[in-house]
Amino acid sequence: MKKLLSLMSIMTIVGSVSTSALACTLETKKVVVTVDGLENKVEKPEELEITSYDNTLQANKVTTTASLLLEGITFTKDKYQNAQTLNKQKEFLGVQGQSLSLNKYLDDNAEAINKDETLKSFKEAYESSRNTNFTSIDFGRSEEAKTKNNKNSNFDVKTDSRIFVVKKNKEDKKVTSSEIVDNWDITEGLDNKTKLKNDAKTVIETGKSLDSFLEVLAQKDAETKIFESYDSTNDDDKEIINRATKLSKVAEDEKNTRSIKLLGEFDVPTKFDKNVVKPVDDKVLESAPTGDTFKLYASEDGKTIQANKSFVYTESKNFAKITLGFEDPGINENIVNYKIEYNNINKIAIQWGLKNVDLTTTNDGVEYSIVWYEPYKYSFKNTFADEKKYMYNILDENFVPEIKITKK
Fold this sequence. Notes:
By secondary structure, the chain is of the alpha+beta class. Helix content is 25%, strand content 26%. The protein has eleven helices and 20 strands. The longest helix has 21 residues. The relative contact order is 0.16. Keywords: Signal.
């Protein structure tokens, strides 16, 4: 039970990944989560380093990943109250997740452990009734991944994202069909406008970077930037200004979007496809690896673009070495600290999520939006199928972790 309770401080930050039986009131210690050994940012010591991996689409990416790993690492058959709860957790972890279990490692290596004093003392501490605790978990990325300008381990939303211009047909507030179009002009449908300047930037194009979207829309002084001579009595002129003003507020928010670090190295997509991926036999694609190309995916009927039924992901080229701290208070307060290393968890996936900005809105008729992908979360699973099962299916079926335990 204590091994489970030692996770409480981290789980209260990010929310429990799965339902587990929690009881007892033993004191627990905060699990410090670091990346590359850093708890705080070098350039901003007042901020946690793990926030360098977050964006507005989703926070707590690193702590959520740590929590999921700890679900597997702390798995023991005897910490569940009944067979039903145990079997549910087994399904949640799958064979690969269960293989991470320290308890399994200790059982499988009993003969070797009896010949090693450090492993023997760790086993005694881990299985004892003392209030032992996990104290830290670190994600140690490769030296290449730590490089500031490495395109495989950093994602600049403004320059690396590719926007899709989406045209939607609506009836009674509901989208009946949608498609990717080449571009959208801020003057769309407004034919009676006065003359625009030759260098006026009014067009947003599919496949361009988010920066280009910001450049077109961030026009607080649109009257002088767009028009040769703005006519305040012309309804179409006023509508263009209304659009520019409304969208420039959105652009201001996105201007603050920064480059985020990636938890490992990934071949981030650099291309885009204007063709929406259609369902097969009325079934959406549940697992959608990106390869080098971002794509949008259709709903079951093939008429509309959907954002939550296809698991869009990029698998890592490499992940990180996982290092945990474990504290044993000892029998007579002779505290012993252990370092536990997992050296070969070499796969993880970025799940991509869609960000959306409405360019025009209507209850009935044609509406335009732009969407683009950003990192949403990290996952050891690559499909929405069996939602609460097999959370480590990205690892090989015969995966065996390389575990090293030493005293600090």
